[in-house]
Amino acid sequence: MKVAMLINGYFPRIGGAERILAALTPKLIGHGVEPVVVTRKFPGLSAFEVVNGVSVYRMPIPGPKALASVSFSYAALSKLAEIKPDLLHAHDLFSTMTTAFLAKKRWHLPVVATIHRSGPLGDIDRLRQKVAGELRWRLFREAVDRFVVISREIDLELARDGVEPERRALISNGIDVDKFQPASQTRKQELRRRFDLPDAPIGIFVGRLAPEKRLDHLIALWPDLRGAIPGAILLILGDGPERKRLESNAGEGVRFAGTSDDVAPYLQASDLFVLPSAAEGLSVAALEAQACGLPVLLTAVGGARDIVTHGKNGWLIPPDDDAALAEALQILLNDEALRTRLAEQGRQSVEQDFSLTSVSSRLISLYQSLLVPEARVSSPHREGHSLNDTTEGRR
User: Fold this and answer.
1) Do domains 2-174+355-394 and 185-353 have the same CATH topology?
2) At what angle do helices 284-291 and 16-28 cross, to 10 degrees?
3) CATH top class, domain 185-353
4) CB–CB of 237/285 below 8 Å?
5) How far apart are CA 36 and CA 39, in angstroms?
6) Helix (H, G, I), strand (E, B), or coil: what is residue 355?
7) H helices within the chain, ranges in order?
8) For residue 230, what is the DSSP state?
9) Which of 327, 304, 332, 334 is nearest to 316 (CA)?
C-alpha cells in the first residue's frame, strides 16, 4: 500500500513530529507499506529528494502564513494526483489535515490523523482559535477514519468531543532503541571532551526553544542551583523563536549547543534530562533520553504520565512550579544512586513499550484495517490497541 504522509516539516528540520516520522518511515518499507512524504519546502531544501529510501516532496509556501497554507494545500493536492496513494496520514490538524480532507472528498481515500498535543496549547484548541476553526474541526472530526492517539490525555480529549472509541487508536511515539542506548563511562568521558564539557553534573534540555517549554524559568533558577551544586551545567540543544531572548538572559553555567542531526551523543554525555514544559504531547526527546540511560525530570502534562511513574522510572513535578523544579533538580543531581535506578527502569520501559518495531507494527495493522475488508470485519476497534488491553493502558 502507498501511504502519503502529510506533515508541515521533515528531515533535516528538527522537531518532535519530524524526528518521529523520519525514524518511522524506513521501518515501514518492506512490510507492505510504501511511505511517501509530502511536506513544505523551506529555504535551502530541494523540492524532491530521497531520504533513507523514502521519497520526499516539498511544496512551495510563498507569502504570509495564510497564503502559505493555501499554497501548500493546492500544490499538495496536485502532487497527490500524481502519487496516487491508497491512504492519507495527516500529522496535525492544520494545513496538512485540510489537504487530507479535500483529497478525501475528491478521491474517497481513507484518512488517518495524528494529534500531537492536547490541552490549551494543543492541536484541537489551536485549531478552534483560527478562522472558522469550529467548523473546520467538526468537518475534520467527521472525515477522519482513524485518529492516532499518542497519549491518554489526547484520547480523553477526543472522547469528550464525541469521537467514537473505534475511531481512536492508541499508538505511542516510538524511537530507535538501537541508536539511542546508554554509553559506557569511558564513552561518556570521551563525549564530554569532544563537546568541551566539564567533569561536573550536567542537565540537558532537547527541543524547540518556544515559550511553552518554560526554559526561561529553568534558566532563571540555574544560578541558585549552582550555588548548591558548584559547576553544574545546563546544556540546551535546539533552536526556536525564544533563542535570542534566552541567550541574553542566561547566566554562567548555561550553554546553548544549537541544533544537531544526532542528539544521542549529547544525551549520553549528560547526567539528567529536564523538560519543564507547560504543554506537551508525548515527548520524543524524553523517550530518547530514557533510552540513552538518563533519568528524566518532566512536568506532569500531556503524555508525561504515560511514560513516567513518579519515583520509579522518572520524576514528575507540577507545571509552572519553580520551587518544585528547583527542589527536584537538587535532589536528582545530588543523588547518583537515585539517578541510576530511575535510568535503568526508564530504559526498560522504553524497550518494552516505545520501540520503533512495536509502533510500526501497530501502525501497519491500522493501515491494513482501513484498506483490507477482512481486517475491517475482524478488527473494527483499535488496531493500535485499546487503552484497556495494552501496557500503555495499564500504566
Assistant:
1) yes
2) 70
3) alpha beta
4) no
5) 10
6) strand
7) 16-28, 65-83, 95-107, 123-128, 133-143, 152-160, 185-194, 215-228, 243-249, 264-268, 284-291, 304-307, 322-334, 336-353, 356-371, 373-378, 391-394
8) T
9) 304
Query: What are the extents of the domains in the chain?
Result: 2-174+355-394, 185-353
State the Cα angle at 114 between 111 and 115, rounded to 5°.
135
What band does 387 get if pLDDT is binned at 50, 70 and 90?
very low
CB 298 within 8 A of CB 315: yes
Percentage of the residues of the chain whose pLDDT score is greater than 70: 94
Could you tell me the pLDDT band of residue 14, with boundaries at 50, 70 and 90? Answer: low
Whether 201 and 295 have beta carbons less than 8 Å apart is answered as: no
Rounded CA gap, 292 and 350, in Å?
10
Instruction: Determine what percent of the chain falls in helix, strand and coil, rounding each to the nearest 5.
Output: 45, 15, 35
Using the predicted structure, report yes or no on whether residue 319 has a pLDDT greater than 90. Answer: yes
- Distance between CA atoms of 83 and 3, rounded to whole angstroms? 10
Fold of 2-174+355-394: Rossmann fold (3.40.50)
pLDDT digits (tens, 9 = 90+) for 21-56: 988 998 899 788 999 999 999 999 999 999 999 999
Give the whole-angstrom CA distance, residue 93 versus residue 7. Answer: 10
